[in-house]
Amino acid sequence: IRDNMPEPLKYLTASLFRNKLIKNKTYRQFERVLIERAALDDDTIQKNQFENLKEILTYANNYVPYYNELFKRVGFQPEIMQTAKEMEVIPFLTKELIRENFESLISTKDVSGGNYIATTGGSTGEPLKVLLDYDCVFKENAFVNHFRSNLGYKLSDKLATFRGVEFGDKLWKYNPMQNELIFSPFKLSKKTIVRYVNKINSYKPQYLNGYLSSLYFFAKLLSENNLELNTSLKGIFLISENIDHSQRQFIEDFFKVKSSTFYGHSERCIIAEELAPNEYSFDPYYGYTELIDNKDNTYTIVGTGFLNKTMPLIRYKTDDVAIDLFNGKYKIDGSRKSTMGLYGKNDEFF
After folding, report:
1. How many Å apart are CA 58 and CA 54, to the nearest integer?
2. Of 56, 245, 291, 305, which is the most buried if we count CB atoms within 10 A?
3. Residues contacting residue 54 through CB under 8 Å, at least 6 positions apart
């Protein structure tokens, strides 16, 4: 309904859609848990993580045919597990195994609120399809907004976002649920830059948000054409790409604000907050993360997610690697490189 509404009507009904997110019971619950966690000690946090891990493993054993058969085969009983190390008898789950066993990975128990289909970007090959609880939308946003608060973000703030969605012939579209105006990164060029600037200046967002490569290209076009934004920016949020440090430094210097990012993926197994530039910490309330030694000073990232019961992913092996920086911090190298892309005839970058 939201996506197909005329743009003027979206603005008139914006508060209704926004309230669907920020006043949602699940969103509020996770928001409260993350705020209260700051007062807990590490032992309590680890205990809570283990309880969540045991719960999702027991659920998978009881209601997901794939895991019920697999756990019997390897002799794993989640109900009586005492440590997370015991789950290492479970073979890794890969993209290929998900495609081959899609139906048997779906829970036989209906999840309240229903589910939706999500796909990965397919940056390293064929996109992967998974089913997610509809409540994952609210849980995910609670984590992301919690991370954003480190740059002063408030739920009333507006975003100017550069990311790929279906635009048709339009250069931008309004998303009232996220309080954002989404701009096409694919139609951004020296021929359209003035229209982008005028629209952003009239919208007056507090934050820029989107792909680093697109925001860098946007800043370069502003610089080359002696244009500027007439809005008081408080920060920049970077999504979905590896971070090129020279590009990041350029946009921070150009817009005179700090940026932040986080590591995550469409499968909703793992999320990691950036605590310092290129130093990440895996969130223990989002999932259980394992780092598998590759014997070359890197670790393959493996995750068991807590958010999704429609299709739980247990020991899901990602394409991404981490480098241990010690003290619980890691450098992460994702499969999508922000410096890879194509230039169009009008200097578009995508």
Report:
1. 6
2. 305
3. 78, 79, 81
